[in-house]
Amino acid sequence: MTLRQEAYAMIDSLPDDDSVKFFIDMIRRFNVVARRTEGISGTKNSFSEKRQVFLHMEELKRKYPFPKDYDYEQARRESMEEKYGCVN
Fold it and tell me: 2, 19, 78, 79: which has the fewest Cβ within 10 Å?
């Protein structure tokens, strides 16, 4: 499976439209940051830029919260099973 196919499969597996919107917004934000730092090899983002990104991620967390009944542990187990199979 190519990387692009894997990305499409991940998008298809998202539970609802809010999750897809969140994913698209994250990609857009990543592209903005990547373009801003493009051509400046070897330099790091300033502290204020990192803080802005962090605050934006916190805002997205509030805007697109996980469902109340979301079971992180179950999602982790399913992902591990899918990726590695039964390892017992």
Answer: 2
Per-residue pLDDT tens digits for 11-39 = 888 888 888 888 888 888 888 777 766 55
Helices (H), the chain: 3-12, 17-37, 47-63, 72-84
Distance between CA 79 and CA 32 in Å, rounded? 30
- Cβ contacts of 26-30, under 8 Å, gap ≥ 24: 26/60, 29/53, 29/56
Instruction: Identify whether the C-beta of residue 53 lies closer than 8 Å to the C-beta of residue 29.
Output: yes
pLDDT at 59 over 70: yes
